[in-house]
Amino acid sequence: MAASLRLTRVEGGLLLEQGPDGQIRLPASAPRGFERRLIGRGPLEAVFLCQQITADGGIAHALASVTAWEQAGAVPVAENGRQLRELLLAVSLAHAHLRHFYLGALPDYLPWGTLADYEGSSEVLLELRASLAERPRRDWTRQSFEHPFTAEERDRLWEHRAHAIRQLGVLQRMLAVLGGKYPVAMSLVPGGINLDLNEQVLLKLRAYLGEVRRFLEEQVLDDGLLLVRRYPGLKSLGRGVPDFLCTGSGEDEAALEGALFPSGVVRADRLEPFAAVATESIRSAFYRIRAQGSSGGTATQPQPDKQDAYSWIKAPRYQGKPMETGPFARLVITYLSGARMSRPELVDELERQLGTSVRRSNTVAGRLLARVGELGTLMERAETLLDQIDPVQPTVSADIDPFHVSGEGLSLLESPAGSLQHRVILERGRIVHYDIVSPCTWNGAPRDEQNLAGSLETALSQAGLDLGDAGQQRVASRIVQSFAFSATDAVQ
User: How much is the pLDDT for 293?
Assistant: First the structure.
């Protein structure tokens, strides 16, 4: 039975379409054309403009853009600048994970209408409950559904959600200090980060980190475990493709102990070194290939009337295979690589909760626990970086002129939703070619020449859902939210 569902809590909005064969597809919206819009501009403009691609991953896109520029011009990066950049990325990932869990995923498990029954001591929530009670109940309980939480658990989740919103404000202040402003970071420049660094700035950052660390490391993970216990079906729901990809920290992978995330690829249950860049299939996407000239190579051009196409999302492939990327892939690859993990007990807890090995746990529950569990890794790394940064050393390399570069640069790093690739070709300081492969493009990819879909389409189609059924629509939303999917990140 053909049906469709529009998910409004996904950034950019997401339409799911189910054909008569039961397969669910992601047509997505037409792209905004970031890659084309950057042609002819200076690379510093790309650093700022790429942050508009997606809210949660904007800083990762900016970092990928500036490091691709540096590689094209062989620009050295100051050690302090490198560490401050990694701190900026770690805090942005923590902000994205916290926001997504409580504001993106939780409404699919704890209905808004349960606030009417709140019996806790939070003055903020009591005031909110009172204000809502004055409105017709049908206006704010339309999404009501049965849930398995006890009254105590319900109230605890509401209180943690309110506390998480306050903690998001603290993380935003950290991002503003590091980035010059928020949500668009202005401090990222070739050679490092343009920040007036002193001991007072580091003390302020340490104070902010101390304020949020315990909540992010302990209480958010406890809430994730509670969801999995109360919704045991999540342990088998939404299984995606069996192969995983992590491009790592973008730094020298020879020293895994110093990397935020080690790079690697899991194929056929084997861990392999990450050794190739992505290719993109447009078999099912509304694009055609066109030549761009001797300097720019090839590029794609929209073709909305393309026969047999159904999606505006391209299909990235690693050595011909679709890959799942994101916090779960990072957890698996970190574990299999033997790299130091800040919380090795997370893998034991995940396997105990899900009853299977971590490599086979890429379900809604596995992704959810990997995402909230990663907060501990990020907080520990942020504290280590703050201890290593020297306030008297420069944050930007001196005596460089990156604004007249000619060359090609490639940047690979991890964003909140997974692996990110930026490739730029410059001629005399101007962009002649720009290519972006985002994590949501990996996960939301349509079918390729081998009829293989990306991990999200695979997870939705294998769930056997009927999108015409209201209860199963909520299940579909849980699967999509487990990927922290962004429609704008998927198409740029």
Answer: 47
Cα–Cα distance measured from residue 164 to residue 277, given in angstroms and rounded to the nearest whole number: 37
Is there a contact between 190 and 69 (Cβ–Cβ < 8 Å)? Answer: yes
- pLDDT of 140 reads 62
Which residue shows structure tokens 């088998």?
A: 236
Average pLDDT in the 7-34 region? 92
Is there a contact between 248 and 237 (Cβ–Cβ < 8 Å)?
A: no
Q: Provide CATH code, domain 3-110+147-491.
A: 1.10.645.10
Write the pLDDT tens digit of every residue in 245-256: 999 875 544 333
Residues 315, 442 contacting (CB under 8 angstroms) = no
For the chain, the domains span 3-110+147-491
Write the CB contacts of 53 (distance below 8 Å, at least 6 apart in sequence): 34, 61, 436, 438, 488, 489, 492
Torsion, Cα 274 280 283 286, to 10 degrees, reads 150
For the chain, what is the mean pLDDT? 91
Residue whose entry in the numeric block shows the structure tokens 């008297």: 392
The residues facing 422 across adjacent strands are 411, 436
